[in-house]
What does this fold into?
Amino acid sequence: MTTTSPAKGSGPAEQGPTNEGAPFLSVRDLRVHFPTDDGVVKAVDGLSFDVWRGRTLGIVGESGSGKSVANQTILGLHNPGSTRISGEIHLEDQELTTAPERTLEQLRGNKVAMIFQDPLTALSPYYTVGRQIAEPYRKHRGASRREARERSIEMLAKVGIPHPARRVDDYPHQFSGGMRQRAMIAMSLICDPDLLIADEPTTALDVTVQAQILDLLLELQQEFGSAIIMITHDLGVVSGVADDVLVMYAGRAVERGTVAEVLRRPRHPYTWGLLTSMPRLRGDVDQDLVPIAGTPPSLLAPPPGCPFEPRCAYAGEVADDVSCATDRPALPEERGAACHLTAEQKRTFFTERIKPRLR
Ligand SMILES: Nc1ncnc2c1ncn2[C@@H]1O[C@H](COP(=O)(O)OP(=O)(O)OP(=O)(O)O)[C@@H](O)[C@H]1O
Ligand code: SF4
Ligand SMILES: [Mg+2]
It folds into this structure.
């Protein structure tokens, strides 16, 4: 699908907040495991990342890599009875994995909001759209019914719903799929969250509306200095709106850095594969695309070494005393990639084998 991204202009990457100093959100060694009849699904398995105020972190990775599960954990959305969670999630000075439900309830829809991948998860069929959009505003701001309704209409207008004063009284089934997604975005933005987690927020929307929504998120960020996590399959969206990037594979981060670093000088063979699969970034859609061969590993029994090893074209090229099949590569704390190739090998392989395909 083609996507239009707003121009970042003089956005935070150039002039605004940096990724130095204390992050607003800090996730460390997060594991989210689901025991099932077939075994334990290790959906997230040792994930660490940071998000700063005023900056947008783009999280990319194939379907099933754990992007949604990891971010739902920040909001405490998994059933504690059927999920094993370990690691730490710090939101400023608050630790969230051990926080009581009451604390999380106070955060949700207020300081931290999420735009869900599937609008039907967030909207009940039994209440009007307006009432649902207004709910966090009434709950967290103590607004009256009338104030909340006015704010709902204002938010519906902001996300581009025509005749908002009339549509506010519609039920979700009276909205199209794209309108429901916009209604959910309105609900997530109603309390001007400090951290917004946007899980594929623009997938069901047409190109013009996508650009409008991405602009709206950047406005929120510029006005309130919000931190944004943008989960997307679309590296075009990442290059348009994100400052930092985290590349996920099989429940872990395999590469991280600023957008300029990761998109211009990627260091992980998986990121190379993602980039060569992206027509918008390659600039020449007529050339054959180079998809990543094979499928992601089973999360029930992930490979003991590098999780990407079964699909990696470079697996045999690392030093003699290192085995991609049995030695798990670590991701450096700052910028870098979880890969055994030396810095020199990465530079050479990228320049000689990957870069020519990106032109
Ligand atoms: N409650 C659950 N029980 C068992 N497995 C689960 C559960 N929830 C998610 N999973 C599995 O965890 C893995 C990660 O899922 P997740 O939804 O985070 O992927 P994703 O990266 O968001 O993918 P997509 O891009 O398709 O949205 C998947 O294999 C999924 O099937
Ligand atoms: S560690 Fe080995 S298998 Fe994994 S990405 Fe690097 S070269 Fe490929
Ligand atoms: Mg998802």
